[in-house]
Amino acid sequence: MKLLFYFGLFLFLFSCNQNETLVSDAQKVELKPLISTKKMVLIEGGKYQPFYGKGDSLVSVKSFYIDDSPVTNGEFLEFVKKNPQWRKSEIKRLYADSLYLKDWISDTELPKNSKINSPVTQVSWFAAKAYAKSVGKRLPTLDEWEFVGRADETDKNASKKLSYSSNIINLYNEKNRQFNEIKKSKPNIYGVYNMFDLVWEWTEDFNSILTTGDSRGGVYDDKQLNCAASAISANDIYNYAAFMRFALRTSVKANFTINNLGFRCAKDSLAK
Q: What is the pTM of this model?
């Protein structure tokens, strides 16, 4: 039994180390920098009630910048032209599954009938991070994304409105919305576009909700995050849109690519 225990512990630690090494190796890959013309919006920090956690737990979010819209096909095309290691024929399977940019005609040709200003999709978390790094940015954290996502056109926190979740669900139900161009709908009160009506979006710590003691100060209990049990620790059991987002985040891996999953970038408010 002791031998089995230590063997199991070895496999666990080896797996963890492999994952850490994989992320570290991806970050070390040399990138040629790009100049981004994407407008960024300053989000003043504050506290908010996260979707999961104790009823009285508030999360502090520091001021940060976020792209006013998702990264587009055209922007990602320029990235792979300059950084061929992230082209679909060159990328290592460790960093993206076989569906990575699968609809692209070639390494540097967008899908047939696609639009330059539509969000790029079928990109892995590793690829999204690499793009963000190349333009001197990063991916937004889960808390930053959700902090901005609470807003509608008139309120910074519209999450308590009866229409808030239902409106988002209606957007999620629209077929092929990922092919629409950015900034064709109205922005929220911050001036941020397309948080819900185009694509799902990667965050820096997309699956951290599964881990106790994470950046949120350990207020989440991962024993309550399995299947229907998750409803017990949700602060708003009627926020079906948030259930869908968190279900997606906890079901994907960093090398997954999905045809309606894209990203936008962020950076610290003090970043030059």
A: 0.80
